[in-house]
Amino acid sequence: MNVNRIKFLIAGAVLLSAFLFLFLTSFQSENLSYFLTVDEIADKGQSLSGQGIRVEGKLVPNSLSRNSKAMRLSFSLQGEKSVLPVNYTGVPPDLLENGFPVIAEGKINAQGVLVAKNLMVACPSKFTEMQKAGEEVPGAADHLRLINISAAAKKTESKN
To answer: Cβ distance 81 to 42 under 8 Å?
Structure first.
């Protein structure tokens, strides 16, 4: 055999094994997540424990609890029939308010709570769809009003 041919075969084998390794390990990534609804998560129960999931639901009114010092949030997402509790540590999205569609990405813990790594408020086109469906969609001016109402409600709760 020719020396150049041997070098070519060795380089080909190295490249093939590298691609094969990357292909096989990509399916074991923590970033791989299933997109499920709140109701599907409730139906599957503990079988999803520890798996990466992505879920969309509406923020349940008055369920948003903030701990600004620890940068922790807890809230519930509403499905058609079920509610999913969510805990998140980090900087929340700007439009995270009651009734807004939220996409949370993370893992379900043993208690059935989604421990979210990422939070996103659904894209503004979703608000257009909400408007077409006859649902009330807050505008930019309403956003500040909602924040003030939420802050006032929390002050009232803390006094009681």
So the answer is: yes
Backbone angles phi and psi of 52, in degrees to 5: -75, 130
Tell me the C-alpha distance between 20 and 51, whole Å: 24
Q: Would the CA dihedral through 147, 148, 153, 156 be positive or negative?
A: positive
Residue 41, exposed/middle/buried by CB under 10 A (0-12, 13-18, 19+)?
buried
Through-space distance between the first and last CA atoms of the chain, rounded to whole angstroms: 87
What are the tokens at 85? 């509790």
| pLDDT category of residue 11 using cuts at 50, 70 and 90 | very high
Please tell me the distance from the alpha carbon of residue 133 to that of residue 58, in angstroms, as a whole number: 15
Give the tokens for residue 65. Answer: 């609890």
Per-residue pLDDT tens over the stretch 86-141:
999 888 777 676 667 788 888 888 888 888 898 888 765 656 666 677 776 655 44
